[in-house]
Design goal:
150 residues; alpha+beta; 3-stranded antiparallel β-sheet; two-stranded antiparallel ribbon
Length: 150
Amino acid sequence: MFLAHLHSGTKCSEDALVHPIETGYIVGMTLSQAAQHYHVTGLDQSLLNEQKEAFQTCLTFLEGVEKSNGRHTGSNSYGLKHIVENPSGRFGIPASQDCYNGYIYEGTLILAALASGFTISQRGHLHADLNISERCVRRRAKEFANSVIA
């Protein structure tokens, strides 16, 4: 098992506390371990090369993002990967603010979401809907953008 350390949980809102053990969150899973552990339709293994930093960035972004009860078509892997790549210009974050400046392969984001305990729904191709709270994504994007420039 890939356990490094467990933290007590992070809050998205006053009533939402995410606990790693309760959500199946495997702390310390690497990109290559996630690619071996999870089956993702349409995943191109060759595009995972040079994505270790992107995977860690995705894990960092997803830490504390609230899991919703169901999947939301508005919370999809393609849109979320762009938010993680650069949240500036969205959700009231100044467009001039530089955030993460690397490319994130959509499959890398999906693997990070799975390793973080989220669930996905695919329709025969790479694109996936996730059980991610859109409200919490907005909040996390603002925190993430501020932490990058701090």
